[in-house]
């Protein structure tokens, strides 16, 4: 397992939603990558997570990479139970 600094600042770029009538979720900056990961996995609709990009320093992670970082044993924040249907949609 490679090291990852969950305390570094992060930027999240959600994919564009094609659904009309829904407020778009825009670019967000987070004080820590851990907070960005939690928001992406626990708050974003699965369709937006799939096309999302997380940037931490010079590293970029797609939806699968975001999920993998969130699932790591060394993830520092308490995880909220995410509905099984949401997890299945992302996988």
How would you characterize this protein structure?
Mean pLDDT is 84; it is low at 83-88. It is globular and about 30 Å long. By secondary structure, the protein is α+β, with helices and mostly antiparallel strands. It starts with 9 loop residues before the first strand and ends with a helix. Helix content is 34%, strand content 15%. The chain has one domain (10-14, 25-90). It has helices spanning 33-42, 46-50, 63-71, 84-90; strands at 10-13, 28-30, 53-56, 59-61. Strands 2-1-3-4 form a four-stranded antiparallel beta sheet.
SSE topology sketch:
Elements: E1 10-13, E2 28-30, H1 33-42, H2 46-50, E3 53-56, E4 59-61, H3 63-71, H4 84-90
Q: Segments where pLDDT lies below 50 for 5+ residues?
A: 83-88
Number of helices: 4
Query: Secondary-structure element sequence?
Result: EEHHEEHH
- CA radius of gyration is 13 Å
How far apart the termini lie comes to 21 Å
Largest sheet: 4 strands, antiparallel
Give the overall pLDDT as a whole number.
84
What's the number of extended β-strand segments? 4
3D shape: globular
Side by side, the strands of the main sheet go 2-1-3-4
The amount of helix comes to 25-40%
Structural class: alpha+beta
Total domain units: 1
β-sheet strand percentage = 15-25%
């Amino acid at each position: 397992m490679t090291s990852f600094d969950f305390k570094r600042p992060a930027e999240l770029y959600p994919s564009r939603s094609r659904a009309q009538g829904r407020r778009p979720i825009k670019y967000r900056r987070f004080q820590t990558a851990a907070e960005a990961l939690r928001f992406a996995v626990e708050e974003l609709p699965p369709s937006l997570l799939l096309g999302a990009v997380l940037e931490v320093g010079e590293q970029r992670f797609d939806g699968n990479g975001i999920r993998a970082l969130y699932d790591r044993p060394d993830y520092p924040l308490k995880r909220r139970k995410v509905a099984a249907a949401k997890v299945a949609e992302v996988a």
